[in-house]
Amino acid sequence: MPSDLIVARPEGLYCPPGDFYIDPWRPVSRAVITHAHSDHARFGHEHYLCAEPGRGVLLARLPGITLDTLPYGERITHHGVTLSLHPAGHVLGSAQVRLEHGGQVWVASGDYKVEDDGTCAPFEPVRCDTFITESTFGLPIYRWQSQPVLMAEMFRWWQLNAEAGRASVLYCYAFGKAQRVLHGLLRHAGTDLAMPGPIIVHGAMTGLNRAYAEAGVQLAPTMIVSDLPARGPALQRALVVAPPSAQRSTWLRRFGAEAADAFASGWMQLRGTRRRRGVDRGFALSDHADWPGLLQAIDATGAQRVIVTHGNVPVMVRYLSEQGLDAQAFKTEFGDVDDVEDPSDAQPGSAVEASA
User: Fold this and answer.
1) Sheet holding 305-311, edge to edge
2) Is the pLDDT of residue 149 over 90?
3) Domain end position, chosen among 250, 283, 316
4) Cα–Cα distance measured from residue 311 to residue 288, given in angstroms and rounded to the nearest whole number
5) SS3 293
6) Are residues 30 and 109 in the same domain?
7) How does pLDDT run across 180-225, given as a tens digit for each residue?
8) What is the domain-level CATH number for residue 320?
9) Which of 92, 184, 243, 292 could pair covalently with 151 via S-S, beta carbons 3.0-4.6 A apart?
10) Are residues 257 and 155 in the same domain?
11) 38: how many CB neighbours lie within 10 A of its CB?
12) Would the pLDDT of 277 be above 80?
């Protein structure tokens, strides 16, 4: 029986014949990075490899690293293992890692979603024998509305607040979610002239917005709060896009005690989560696949063996086993920036710094 192409080690997911790791959480010599979220891309490795479209955001997150990139679909061979990277549809530059060796094909998906949101290359099913999948929202209760529907709801919420003279504060993660909101609102409005007011972004988002714009992603025009007078009608009509770490910070006080607030996350589908967050409104917008999306992606690979990593692992393993698949689990240190605060949402020394 052939040996496994990927195994779980204390440092992370390891490819023994290739002698490299995928998204390792401890320092290693060679790391293949699926995307630049902080639970998958960390400082300390000697050499990094990522998909070419992810160069800008990865260097914005981890400046100074030794980085090589690979265009989607291009194959390289390392120690006899053929490796290629394929779009995961999660965030800009996100990739699935395809490995081929000894007659086996394995795919490690990283994080992914199947809906094309316009800010990154859409998810590409890759045929394989073994598929490593996340299961962040691996419960049947999670079923997302389409992005156009969600953006229409978000736009209308902002519009009604602006008409009432209230600023609209939208909490969302600085990398991926913020750019998806800015792209989706622009697409919905058709032009920045049709916006209810100005869009103000937190400083933690400016560098990442720049990386997206340089990659050719269209974003709604934004400004920082110092670009506007301290008091005035513009602030009362503004949409303020801020990381969750900004909630209840002094930075937000300038928008007034009457400001409405909302949170954009897949967890907002659960009313209890919205109450715990203490916000007026929740938008169930996630960069992860929902239950139907997970099953669609797994089925499209044709894999007979599926290894589940983070999220609702026992539920997904049990369900896939009942469908006749060889389903197993890997224990990893991957988190979920739809739920856990991403430390890189706040810039060191800024007014708002995220906690781990």
Assistant:
1) 75-78, 81-87, 95-101, 104-108, 130-135, 305-311, 326-329
2) yes
3) 283
4) 11
5) helix
6) yes
7) 999 999 999 998 789 999 999 999 899 999 999 999 999 999 999 8
8) 3.60.15.10
9) 184
10) yes
11) 20
12) no
Comparing 271 with 325, the larger pLDDT belongs to 325
Letter string b/e over residues 156-195, b meaning 16 or more CB atoms within 10 A of that residue's CB? ebbbebbeeebbbbbbbbbbbbbbbbbbbbbebbeeeeeb
- b/e sequence 297-322, b meaning 16+ C-beta within 10 Å: bbeebebebbbbbbbbbeebbebbee
pLDDT tier for residue 332 given thresholds of 50, 70 and 90: confident
Q: How far apart are CA 6 and CA 309, in angstroms?
A: 13
Per-residue pLDDT at 345 exceeds 50: no
Does pTM top 0.90 for this prediction?
yes
Q: For the residues of 137-170, what is the DSSP string, one character each?
A: T-STT--PPPHHHHHHHHHHHHHHHHHTT--EEE
The CA distance from 233 to 237, in Å, is 6
Q: What is the full DSSP assignment across 178-246?
A: HHHHHHHHHHHHSSGGGSSS-EEE-GGGHHHHHHHHHTT------B-GGGS-SSSHHHHT-EEEE-GGG
DSSP symbols for 46-110: SEEEEEGGGHHHHHHHSTT--EEEE-TT-EEEETTEEEEEEE-SSSTT-EEEEEEETTEEEEE--
Q: What are phi and psi of 251, to 5 degrees?
A: -60, -30
Please tell me the total count of domains within the chain: 2
Task: Decide: residue 18, CB within 10 A, 0-12 exposed, 13-18 middle, 19+ buried.
Answer: buried
For residue 204, is it within any domain?
yes
- State how far the Cα of 141 lies from the Cα of 345, in Å rounded to an integer: 28
Residue 303 lies in a domain: yes
Q: Which residue, 74, 43, 72, is CA-closest to 59? A: 43
Q: Are residues 208 and 243 in the same domain?
A: yes
177-189 helix and 206-214 helix, angle to the nearest 10 degrees: 60
Rg (CA), the chain: 21
CA distance 50 to 164: 46
**The dihedral sign for the CA sequence 137, 143, 148, 151:** negative
Give the residue among 123, 138, 128, 90 at the shortest CA–CA distance from 108.
Answer: 128
Q: Specify whether the CB–CB gap between 169 and 259 falls below 8 A.
A: yes
> Considering only CA atoms, which of 108, 88, 94 is closest in space to residue 34?
94
